[in-house]
Specification:
Structural class: alpha+beta
Shape: elongated
Largest sheet: 6 strands, mixed
Low-confidence stretches: 545-550
Helix content: 40-55%
Strand content: 5-15%
Radius of gyration: 34 Å
Number of strands: 14
Length: about 650
């Protein structure tokens, strides 16, 4: 390694060329960086006795050259600075030319910009990365032609600055002799990437995608870089664009380990060092094609797979992509048929929908999905479909009792992704009617039969308990449907809405034709009907011990309860209820009011309404005369209220 302090004049002088490697990012400086550079240069220009101004480092490594050819150097670091200074000198030369100072134009051109006696790419003293190359050459030959590119914008920015009463001779001297740099020229014994990583970048920080690309190509022999870039990296880059970092992260998690975004680069480096960059990039490229289909399901040829991928994309569960990459790979390798893949994709949909309806927190999914495929390999079943079902069943998958009850009472519609998930549920209901003329549901929106804002007419229609009915049932399944007339219906009366529903081509809306009134009773009746349909659409795919959850803990005796890592020794299910409620009251006393509202027969301030009241805290009491099954299911609901994961509340029992 040769390290020296120098100025830009000798950097540009001579028959030489600085090549920005094909794997480097494109020119990315913008107005902010240009203004900082111009301010530094202008201060030197305005000073009577300008001192040397340090510009940073320029790291290069000599590339192989033909005898008597151009001395070429690969730019490891400093490409943004040196390219920008080159564009300033180019603009300065053009201003000399326009003012008739041809000799000065020729001087600046032939000394600093080009190798005048060379042809082709060797003609230029700087050769940008492949992405920028055509733009760069166009600016060199026709700078007056505007191009939508930061490189042309930089040229134009500095040209305008130089045209504002600037003494070009003095400015040329400032740029070529007063800007100092540390030149680091690596030799064959140096690891260019270790040097690259250790530098303190003062320009734009490298993105994760930049770091990934650079490390991959620094590990590939220089003679193969262009071919590998053209055939592997560029197609992947064109395919995924800004999604590359997240794709790489999900690819790395295919092995089963959860990886934080901040750890992606280091894990990738370790794998490349162990396996070889070119082979590794080959696999990345293959899996990027699959990932692209997850992002753009319309590219999938098989219509059944495509439709299921569209639903999964709408569910917005990119956390499942490590698992999907493994499953889709089985299909691409012809290990499984398309039919089995479709079934497995629907199992994932089933799993997500049941958890959503039952209020199971989704913040654990990013750690649930990555190891599933590895766990499947250890399960002794004949098909991958059965392996997947068994693996997911053990990950807080709601059983039929919880699913049915929550379908009737849960507030599905809401903020964030709740709208998308609820719409998918309603679409699946409509599709289950198997209408001969299936129409697109894309333009449909969710309609609240009882409107979100009650008019006076609706208040009269609902009766004395209108406010309570509105609060309890507004966003529940029984009060929701699909329509193309959402904004038109708005707060219309039920009579008017029913007329519109009768005109709808949707099967689910034919239900309203025989309904004369819309109150809590009718909402609950419809919810029960739709719940029965959804039980068939999303059947429980796990192993069933009993016919319902209500009997699953009957006859068992708990001996341990663990909540948020704290273990309680329990002897009865009454103990489980007591300690669970105590944790809730200690950690989230503000939630007790909501719990009282949702479960008035179980928790409240009036001890007289309970058969066997027990004091909790803050004037609250709870019903202790409950069966084991009732306690277990109530505790699970409390766990959902607290947004705890399956590992944060668990009991151990004996028969």
């Amino acid at each position: 390694m040769d390290v020296s302090s120098t100025i830009f004049q000798p950097i540009f002088e001579g028959v030489k060329q600085y090549v920005v490697p094909l794997f480097q990012r494109s020119y990315s400086w913008g107005k902010k960086e240009w203004m900082i550079l111009w301010t530094d240069i202008k201060e030197l220009y305005d000073s009577e006795n300008p001192r040397q101004h340090f510009m940073g480092s320029l790291v290069t490594i000599p590339a192989k050259s033909v005898p008597e050819g151009v001395a070429k150097f690969s730019l490891i670091d400093g490409q943004q600075r040196i390219t920008t200074l080159y564009l300033i000198l180019m603009a300065m030369g053009d201003l000399y030319k326009e003012s008739g100072q041809i000799e000065k134009y020729e001087e600046i051109k032939n000394i600093y910009l080009v190798n005048p006696y060379k042809k082709g790419n060797d003609y230029y003293k700087i050769l940008p990365t492949q992405i920028d190359r055509d733009v760069f050459k166009s600016i060199s030959s026709n700078p007056e032609v505007k191009i939508e590119h930061e490189m042309w914008n930089a040229y134009n920015f500095f040209r305008k600055k130089l045209a504002l009463n600037i003494d070009l001779d003095r400015m040329k001297n400032i740029i070529t002799t007063k800007l100092s740099i540390v030149s680091i020229v690596l030799d064959s014994s140096d690891n260019p990437y270790l040097v690259f990583e250790s530098l303190n970048h003062k320009g734009k920080p490298l993105s994760v995608a930049d770091l990934i690309r650079n490390y991959v190509f620094m590990s590939i022999h220089i003679e193969k870089q262009e071919e590998v870039y053209r055939e592997k990296w560029k197609p992947m880059q064109d395919r995924l664009g800004e999604s590359i970092p997240e794709f790489v992260r999900h690819y790395l998690m295919m092995g089963g380990e959860y990886i934080n975004t901040g750890d992606v680069y280091n894990v990738l480096k370790e794998q490349i060092d162990n396996e070889g960059a070119e082979e590794y990039l080959e696999r990345l490229c293959i899996y990027s094609e699959m990932y692209d289909i997850f992002l753009h399901p319309e590219k999938e040829d098989n219509i059944e797979i495509r439709n299921e991928l569209i639903v999964l994309k709408e569910l917005d569960i990119s956390t499942s992509y490590p698992l999907l990459l493994n499953l889709y790979s089985l299909y691409k390798q012809k290990i499984i048929e398309a039919k089995e893949l479709v079934q497995m994709l629907f199992v994932i949909e089933n799993y997500i929908i049941r958890r959503f309806v039952c209020g199971v927190p989704s913040n654990q999914l990013n750690k649930i999905f990555p190891p599933i495929f590895s766990q499947m390999q250890k399960i002794e079943e004949d098909s991958y479909l059965l392996k997947l079902k068994k693996a997911l069943q053990a990950k807080n998958y709601p059983k039929d009792y919880d699913f049915r009850e929550c379908l009737k009472t849960a507030k599905l519609y809401g903020n964030g992704d709740r709208v998308k998930k609820t719409k998918i549920i309603l679409e699946r209901i409509e599709q289950s009617f198997k209408h001969k003329e299936i129409s697109s549901l894309d333009n449909m929106t969710i309609e609240h039969v009882m409107p979100q804002t009650l008019s006076d007419e609706w208040k009269i229609h609902l009766g004395d308990d209108c406010e309570q009915t509105h609060e309890l049932y507004l966003n529940t399944l029984g009060n929701l449907t699909l329509t193309a007339y959402n904004s038109e219906l708005s707060n219309d009366s039920f009579k008017r809405k029913r007329e519109i529903y009768n005109e709808s081509h949707l099967e689910m809306n034919k239900y309203f034709s025989t309904v004369e009134k819309w109150s809590d009773i009718e909402i609950k009746q419809r919810a029960g009907i739709l719940a029965s349909k959804l039980m068939k659409i999303y059947p429980y795919f796990g192993e069933t011990i009993n016919s319902s959850d209500l009997s699953s803990v009957t006859g068992t005796k708990p001996y341990s309860l663990v909540v948020l890592g704290q273990e309680f020794n329990v002897k009865t299910w009454a103990d489980v209820l007591m300690y669970t409620l105590k944790v809730v009251s200690d950690l989230a006393p503000d939630k007790l009011e909501n719990i009282e509202t949702d479960y008035p027969s179980l928790v409240g301030k009036n001890a007289k309404i309970f058969r066997r009241p027990k004091e909790l805290c803050n004037e609250y009491y709870y019903e202790s005369n409950l069966s084991a099954s009732h306690i277990y299911n109530f505790c699970k609901q409390l766990v959902n209220v607290m947004e705890l994961s399956e590992d944060e509340w668990k009991t151990e029992v004996t028969n």
